[in-house]
Write a structure and sequence with these properties.
Layout (H helix, E strand, L loop, with lengths): L6 E7 L5 E8 L5 E8 L2 E4 L4 E8 L2 E8 L2 H18 L3 E5 L2 E5 L13 H15 L4 H17 L9 H13 L4 H17 L5 H4 L18 H9 L3 H13 L3 H5 L6 E2 L4 E4 L15 E4 L2 H13 L18 H11 L27 H13 L4 H8 L4 H8 L7 H17 L1
Antiparallel strand pairs: 1-2, 1-5, 2-3, 3-4, 5-6, 7-8, 9-10, 10-11
Helix pairs in contact: 1-2, 1-3, 2-3, 3-5, 8-12, 12-13, 13-14
């Protein structure tokens, strides 16, 4: 069945009372470029615009407002496409239990006729309930839509081991890394289990996917950190120091509010913010001590930004979703790129801020190793990071003990003893 046409457009209201619509501009990473539309065929920034979906139902043109958030707008576009595909078979009726398909005469169609995309739309809504920020739902939607294309949109109970192998071969032809392939299979496994597929472990064998080679976690050296901070402006420097001092995830920093900082106690108290669709991973609140120097900087910043709710907002007061881009820009300015990375667009990090060595999550690993080297136990590091199991924390610290002075001193003694014996 051909995919139903749903267009994502930006509506611009002009001062003279008129309004125009422009196709949304897609970024190179399969996301929507925020507030950018095609004007006379050219990508143009359109601040203050809002996203709309445009599609046709039974010959009638429909305009549907989907807000200002580009990530949410793209998610709504994909969901609407899935729902319209279901309408080609009948009329989708939403219930609290999900979607059920009704024939055009009003009689319920047997479950065997339900389209793959209907089940997918229901599943994605469940994911959005658990992960309101939309990123996880978008990832699941992308992965499962691709899986459906490869398998011919089979119903979950019809999926066979041969289908999984075809999917793996498809991903390998796309030159995806073994880790990415395993992540895609994890998504498919969860989808099948949700729909009560029996013997999922036999359909998706862990040995089917390419082996993932374990790598030593990437952290930033003291030299890199100092060079990065020196090349940063005040706003950027404060953000990097927060990452390094508190070991925060990207979403935790971008949604950080002034109410999270307990100045009197010198602590950071992370908690969910349902109105911003922000939830903590694993759902656990945690407190993190902050150094006095950083607390002073934050107090000075708060005095200048008294009306802001967030510590690092956009000019519109929203969570900043461009921290990674800003990090890569600063690293490029500081001459810290490795010079070997080439992105999908063919840009080399010799000339562009696209170096893969500069990732926000490396701040978190660096913080963990600094804490451990300073004498904190692994369980303490686990608690500060908010990990649900200690094995994940150990992965962050793998190989770091080998560089400690005490370990090197012991190795030197062993080597000296060998020389004497020889």
């Amino acid at each position: 069945m051909p995919k139903s046409a749903v267009s994502l457009v930006l509506r611009v209201n002009h001062n003279d009372g008129t309004r125009t619509h422009h196709a949304a501009v897609m970024a190179g990473n399969a996301r929507v470029k925020p507030s950018w539309g095609l004007v006379a065929g050219k990508p143009t920034a359109l601040p203050g615009s809002r996203y709309y979906l445009r599609y046709t139902v039974k010959g009638r043109r429909v305009w549907e407002a989907v807000g200002e958030d580009p990530t949410k707008a793209l998610s709504e576009k994909r969901k609407r496409e899935n729902q319209l595909d279901g309408l080609k078979l009948g009329t989708l009726i939403e219930e609290t239990s999900g979607l059920r398909l009704m024939s055009r005469t009003g009689a319920e169609v047997p479950p065997s006729v339900h389209h793959f995309h209907d089940l997918l739309a229901t599943y994605i809504r469940r994911v959005e309930t658990l992960h309101p920020n939309g990123r996880t739902a978008n990832q699941y939607l992308r992965d499962l839509t691709e899986f459906g294309k490869v398998t011919g949109n089979k119903m979950p109970t019809e999926v066979t081991r041969e289908d999984i192998q075809l999917f793996i071969q498809h991903l390998m032809r796309r030159k995806m890394s073994p880790k990415t392939i395993q992540n895609r299979l994890t998504t498919v496994r969860a989808f099948l289990r949700t729909h009560k597929v029996e013997k999922v472990s036999e359909i998706i064998d862990k040995l089917d996917a390419p082996a993932v080679h374990k790598k030593i976690p990437h952290t930033f050296s003291a030299t890199q950190v100092n060079a990065l901070l020196a090349a940063s402006g005040f706003e950027e420097r404060l953000a990097w120091e927060m990452f390094l001092s508190a070991g925060l995830r990207e979403q935790e920093l971008s949604h950080l509010g002034w109410e999270d900082i307990l100045f009197e106690r010198g602590m950071l108290h992370l908690h969910a913010k349902p109105d911003l669709k922000f939830t903590l991973k694993d759902g656990e609140e945690r407190q993190i001590p902050l150094p006095n120097d950083l607390l002073t900087k934050l107090q000075n910043r708060r005095a200048l930004r008294a009306n802001d709710r967030l510590v690092f907002p956009t000019p519109e007061g929203k969570p900043d979703g461009h921290l990674l881009r800003r990090l890569k820009d600063v690293a490029f300015r500081a001459g810290l790129n490795c010079g070997r990375c080439v992105n999908r667009a063919g840009q080399s990090c010799k000339k562009y801020p696209v170096c893969g060595n500069w990732q926000l999550h490396s701040f978190r690993r660096t913080a963990a190793n600094r804490w451990h080297e300073a004498g904190l136990t692994v369980p303490s590091v686990q608690r500060l990071l908010g990990h649900s199991d200690i094995e994940t924390t150990m992965l962050y610290l793998t190989g770091q003990d080998l560089a400690r002075a005490e370990f090197r001193e012991s190795m030197e003694k062993c080597f000296a003893a060998l020389q004497q014996a020889a």
